[in-house]
Amino acid sequence: MLKRISCDKPSFKTVEFKKGFNVILADKTLTSTDKDSRNGLGKSTLLKIIHFCLGSNVKPSSVFRSEHLNDWTFTLELNISGKDYKIHRNTANNSKIYLEGDFSEWIIKPEKDSSGKFVLSNANWRVVLGKLLFGLSPNEKKYKPSFRSMISYFIRKDAKAYTDSFKNSPQQKEWDIQVNNAYMLGLNWEYASEFQILKDNENSLKELKKAAKAGLLDGCIGTIGQLESEKLYLEDKITETENDLKNFKVHPKYGEIELNVNKNTEKIQDLLNNKILNSKMVIQYKENLEQEKDISTAYLEDIYNEAGLIFPDAVKLTIEEVLSFHENIILNRRKYLSGEIERLSNLISSQEEMIKSLSDEKSRYMEILSSHGALEEYTKINGLLMDDKQKLNDITQRINNLKRFESGISELKIKKEELRTKARLDFEERNSLKNQAVRLFNKFSKYLYQEPGTLSLDLSDTGYKFNIEIKRTDSQGVNYMKVFCYDLVLLQMRNSMVKPDFLVHDSTIFDGVDERQVAKALELASNVSEENNLQYICTMNSDVIPHEEFSGEFKKIFDGSIITRLTDATPEGGLLGIRF
Fold first, then answer.
1. What is the sign, positive or negative, of the torsion defined by CA atoms of 419, 420, 426, 427?
2. CB 3.0-4.6 Å disulfide test: which of 20, 320, 486, 524 passes with 165?
3. Which residues form the DUF2326 domain (predicted)?
4. Any long-range contacts for 350-354 (C-beta under 8 Å, 24+ apart)?
């Protein structure tokens, strides 16, 4: 049980708890205005301080990071299994927990520091608290109950923690909900853990299948048979390429020879073009030579006689001179044409010899190129080989992934069925605990609403399923009362289980709840805590106390259970004694 909360700062209001029913009340004064907030008086801060002393993390946004609370040391006194302990934690040095009490049976014992005080790291303090308050032993399982998660059901510290009976925060993961609620209800939490492991395996198999399909072309299904066919093709292609590279000869002057081949090709082409041009010129010259004929005097006389003309002797002499001149011109032209024909014929013969010589040289070069290769070509082929080997490796990996997926799916189905069978048998064997929880919830909800609600604890293909129904309008107030009843179930369901004997609620749990249900809830909490030697603590605002709905006897009980009053009348009236 919680006994006392104090601080080393004189402004802080020490809170003394008692066994049974406890109320921390925030009073509204006549001098307060609409701008004054009783929620700033420290009701919620009180719950945060308890969590702080019980090993909570101190986030950057935490109130314990505020400059106004720098170097404050809070002390929580509590009794666990009949032994009293004091827990000290400083805001400036919050990684260390200073302790007072009997540590002889602790699984991790505090060590003395240089000042002689007993100290534990916050991480080890959580382990100790897990054992002391919940009977938790160190466990190597990935998914297991944790002290911090379970204590957050017994001390729900902010408004978001009251929205769902089975969650201590909106961000809580499904496996954490199952494992911790199963543990607190006396069910076998290890089955919840195993269901989550199978879920992880299933997700891994889905990733395997996704990896197996990665890189496939559109329209390619990528079955094992198709991939095996592609694999064989690549293996044959790789073998062929490796053989080509094995027989590949690299000539040291491959590039130079290749350049010479190109030059020879250009020269041969130029020679062929010139040869064709020269051959055409020879033909033209020969035709011109045929056309060059002598013209005799008799030939001219015959022409003129036929025309009826007779040349005089003087004219004949002149014509003979002209013909002689003409014959000289023709003779000279014939000599020129014959000379050109001979020159071009010789040039053509020379070009043919050069073409043959260059062609022979090119042929020799080509023989070398055909039997050898360039280093660049070798490198290129080798690069293509590496690409094919990578493709083969990828396809092999996809085939293996698909085989593992298909094998894993079959194995997963078997494991799921085996786990469901074992979990179902164990679930049935724990009927007494399950029924106890259901009956308690029925009892508590009926006390509030005259008609029992339903707490259903079941087992599905994915693990435990928890649900609560109360046949009332679906209002936030009813949801809060679901949480209230469930938390009382956890508090009272102790039996052989080690669990906290205290339950702490913030005033949030009564927001929007009908006054009659608030009154009954408070009476119920008082009865359960007093009759079962338990402790119930709640914070409330004075203006929402349903005095008119209390029974005459409970009015006295309620007033006598107010252990601390906070007020907004002065800045010192709050829990911390300061406002910021």
1. positive
2. 486
3. 444-580
4. 351/271, 351/274, 351/275, 351/278, 352/275, 354/267, 354/271
> Which residue's structure tokens are 């090993």?
55
Q: Report phi then psi at 563, rounded to 5.
A: -95, -20
d(CA 178, CA 185): 10
On the CB side of 19, CA atoms within 13 Å amount to 7
Q: Which two tokens mark 72?
A: 């404050």
Alpha-carbon distance of 5 to 77, in angstroms, equals: 6
Say if residues 11 and 69 touch (Cβ distance below 8 Å).
Answer: no
- HSE-CB at 6 with a 13 A cutoff on CA atoms is 10
Q: Got the DSSP string for 545-557?
A: --GGGS-HHHHHH
**Angle subtended by helix axes 189-213 and 174-184, to nearest 10:** 160
In degrees, rounded to 5, the angle at the alpha carbon of residue 6 between the alpha carbons of residues 25 and 502 is: 60
Q: Which residue shows structure tokens 């119920």?
A: 524
pTM attached to this predicted model: 0.71
Question: Sheet holding 502-505: strands in order across?
Answer: 502-505, 535-541, 20-27, 562-567
Q: Is 77 in a helix, a strand, or coil?
A: strand
Distance CA 71, CA 92 (A): 5
In DSSP notation, 397-430 reads HHHHHHHHHHHHHHHHHHHHHHHHHHHHHHHHHT
Query: What is the C-alpha separation between 510 and 38, in angstroms, rounded?
Result: 15
Under DSSP, is residue 367 helix (H, G, I), strand (E, B) or coil? Answer: helix
Which residue from 495, 445, 490, 491 is spatially nearest to 182, judged by alpha carbons? Answer: 490
Contact 568, 29 (CB under 8 A): yes
155: its two tokens: 């001390």
453-461 contact pairs (CB < 8 A, 24+):
453/482, 453/485, 455/486, 455/489, 457/185, 457/187, 459/420, 459/423, 459/424, 459/427, 461/416, 461/420
Q: What does residue 501 show for φ and ψ, rounded to 5 degrees?
A: -105, 25
Helix (H) or strand (E) holding 453: none
Give the list of residues 6+ apart from residue 52 with CB closer than 8 angstroms, or none: 58, 64, 74, 89, 94
- Length, in residues, of the chain: 580
For 460-483, the DSSP string reads ETTEEEEEEE-SS---HHHHHHHH
Whether pLDDT at 345 is above 80: yes
How many other β-carbons are positioned within 10 Å of the β-carbon of residue 227?
22
The more confident residue out of 500 and 394 is 500
- For 83, half-sphere exposure in the C-beta direction (CA atoms, 13 angstrom radius) is 13
Cα(479)–Cα(501) distance, integer angstroms: 24
User: How do residues 494-533 score in pLDDT, each as one tens digit?
Assistant: 655 789 999 999 999 999 999 999 999 999 999 999 999 9
Cα-based distances in Å from 255 to 194, 220, 358, 374: 68, 43, 18, 7
- Quote the CA–CA distance of 217 and 391 in Å, as a whole number: 13
Which residues does 577 contact at the CB level (< 8 Å), separation at least 6?
9, 10, 11, 12, 13, 571
Sheet holding 2-7, edge to edge: 15-16, 2-7, 73-80, 83-90, 96-100, 118-121, 111-112
- Distance in angstroms between the alpha carbons of the first and the last residue of the chain: 31
Crossing angle of helices 552-560 and 515-531, in 10° steps, is 70
